[in-house]
Amino acid sequence: MRRLLIVVHPGSCCGSADMNCGDEAAASIRTALAEDLADWAGGIAVIDGDLSSQLRQRAYRDFGLSLESALQRAAEHGLTAIRIRGCSMEEFDQTRAAVVLADNLALAAGGWTVEITGAWYEPGGGDGCVNSVVEALETVGVSVTVRPSAAVLDPEDAPMDEMSSRSAPCA
Predict the structure, then answer these.
(1) Is 19 a member of any domain?
(2) What is the DSSP string of the chain?
(3) Is 119 inside any structural domain?
(4) Which of 5, 45, 49, 164 has the fewest CB atoms lying closer than 10 Å?
(5) Quick one: pLDDT band at residue 125, thresholds 50, 70, 90?
(6) Could you tell me which of 97, 7, 10 has the C-alpha nearest to residue 51?
């Protein structure tokens, strides 16, 4: 069984998270995701949005490097290592990017374990970009699991059993 981790809008875990969650909570979100990336042993597909450019800024460089390292590690092992643009503010958004990934990798044909992380996730369902990618993939027949490292948009919606001790939801 091949494993694929889809990272949705990692750049939203930078300045946007700082602004919306506060510096400490945002730093915890980035740390949880960076640890998850370091531990991941499988292919990786990143759906980048407008804020992915922040991954190269000095304040977020370590987080950006953790993502680059995970992609490089996957590529070195002959695994999927893809970046695709899918911005929520554009016609080709994260849902269309997810469907392209599903088609190009034949994810619905089976033989894949697909997991998703990134920003933002609303565990009770909602408008988060992670949620929309989950919905798009399930619509085309791909079974997915959201990782505990996904940045939670509204912790009031998160059942305790879905919250990881490593995650730091944003209020």
Answers:
(1) yes
(2) -EEEEEEE-GGGGTHHHHHHH-HHHHHHHHHHHHHHHHH--SEEEEEE-GGGGGGGSGGGHHHHHHHHHHHHHHHHTT--EEEEE--TTSSS-HHHHHHHHHHHHTGGGSSEEEEEEEEEE-TTS-S-HHHHHHHHHHHTT--EEE-TTSEES-GGG--GGG--TT-----
(3) yes
(4) 164
(5) confident
(6) 10
| pTM strictly above 0.85 | yes
- Residue type, position 144, single letter: V
Smallest Cα–Cα separation from 88: which of 54, 144, 50?
A: 50
Backbone phi, psi, residue 87, to 5°: -95, 135
Distance CA 119, CA 1 (A): 26
Residue 148, class by beta-carbon neighbours within 10 Å (0-12 exposed, 13-18 middle, 19+ buried)? Answer: middle
Q: What tens digit of pLDDT does each residue of 17-34 get?
A: 998 888 999 999 999 999
C-alpha torsion angle, residues 87, 100, 81, 84 (rounded to 10)? -20
pLDDT tens profile 93-119: 999 999 999 999 999 998 999 999 999
Residue 3 lies in a domain: no
Is residue 169 assigned to a domain?
A: no
Split into its structural domains, the chain has a count of 1
